[in-house]
Amino acid sequence: xxxxxxxxxxxxxxFLPDDLSLYIGKNTLVKLVLEAMEEINAGNAERDGxxxxxxxxxxxxxxxxxxxxxxxxxxxxxxxxxxxxxxxxIRYLCAGDYPDICxxxxxxxxxxxxITRCLAAxxxxxxxxxxxxxxxxxxxxxxxxxxxxTRWFDMNSSPDFKREAEERIxxxxxxxxxxxxx
Length: 182
What we know:
The radius of gyration is 17 Å and the shape is globular. Residues about 1-10, about 50-55 and about 140-145 have low confidence and may be disordered. The longest helix has 23 residues, at about 25-50. The protein has a two-stranded antiparallel sheet with strand order 1-2. The protein is mainly α. It has 9 helices and 2 strands, in the order ββααααααααα. α2 crosses α7 (about 110-130), α4 (about 75-85) packs across α6 and α7 (about 110-130) packs across α9 (about 160-180). The protein is about 65% helix and about 0% strand.
């Protein structure tokens, strides 16, 4: 659970910290994750023309849990399970149903696209709240990223949120793979 700035070799970087709650607080982050999941469920129901095709309550809870954890830099399934004991927000999102490691991995594997869409929406909203408001401070006192952010703001573009979401999910899969190798 670190808050590092990472730049990948292709030159496109992750300009948000691993733990987005450092920018907006845990309560606001949970609200954004819940809103994103609600929009995804509404879009699924609207597209399919019926409510039964939207994500079931149990799956929605798990998808929301994973999106929140990945947005706070908690990637490994074991770390998520430990977070259920230590983190009040993770317990809140579990709604009394505490999944084991295998369930967490399975949900990530079978609902990867939904998690990616939810997480990308959250990343975009945090970016907008942090950097696109009237009082936004793009460099936030981190001098070594100032040039890159200035270039982004000059070009009127924003990060590839879907790609960052996918990278966070890959990081979760890597964390689980490394844990299995121990």
